[in-house]
Amino acid sequence: MSMSIQGKTAIVTGGCRGIGLAIAQHFVDCGANVMIADRDEAALEQAVSDCDEGNGKVRKFSGNICEKLAMANLLSATLDSFDRIDILVNAHRFVEASDPLDTDPGVLEEMLRQNMISGLRLSQMVAKRMIKQAEGQTDLVQAGAIVNLSTLAASRPVPQMLGYSIACAAQEQATRGLALSLAPHRIRVNGVRFSSVMSHELKCALKEDDSLRSQIVAGTPLGRIASADDVAETAQYLVSEGARFVTGQIISIDGGRSLADPVTAQGL
């Protein structure tokens, strides 16, 4: 089984820190070209510096990828830099607590826009390019692969984060729907659902309450908090030829936690 992504070109959104950065770094280490997209210019500069090491395989795009123009510019920048797009990883996430009885529709709409709609629209845009690139190729050649990130909140609602839970569930359904729609074009779409990962958000939560660490470990059958590399390696598998007959699947990276432990907002 080949997990090689050598020479492939990937866009990774939300790639300037945490899980997104780990995926970008891992892809570069595996020989891929990577366009890191995010809004924080300073963090992007540091991310490129950390990932590139002078090999010219990393570029950055700064912009609000929830906006259609920014998506189009991201696509153009990637093609200008690397001539093609083979992989898209929608790693951008926006997490915010919300009152389940809040009557302000703007909270839910923003959760959906940030965590599902923007990724769906970018996937549609990138898929059109992948289809064009694949014209004239044999039916056995993969045209492209898309990976969407979600969390355990998609299947086990967190009341104090209702909007985010709904957005994660919507993201997973979008993954399945796109997988079915794009399969005839030889584009595979899969998802990675994770629980507690040592991400930027969790590190901040642990600084405020270190007892959270022992709670998470105790509730995880494999007895540790996942690293961002655990997610990155799963993403690599899903975009590689090793997963060439896998589409529409949501792979859980949770150490068995979904089997045994109630979800908490801090652990997402």
TrEMBL record:
This is 7-alpha-hydroxysteroid dehydrogenase. SUPFAM superfamilies: NAD(P)-binding Rossmann-fold domains. It holds the Pfam family adh_short_C2. It comes from Paracoccus seriniphilus. The lineage of its organism: Bacteria, Pseudomonadati, Pseudomonadota, Alphaproteobacteria, Rhodobacterales. It comes from the Bacteria.
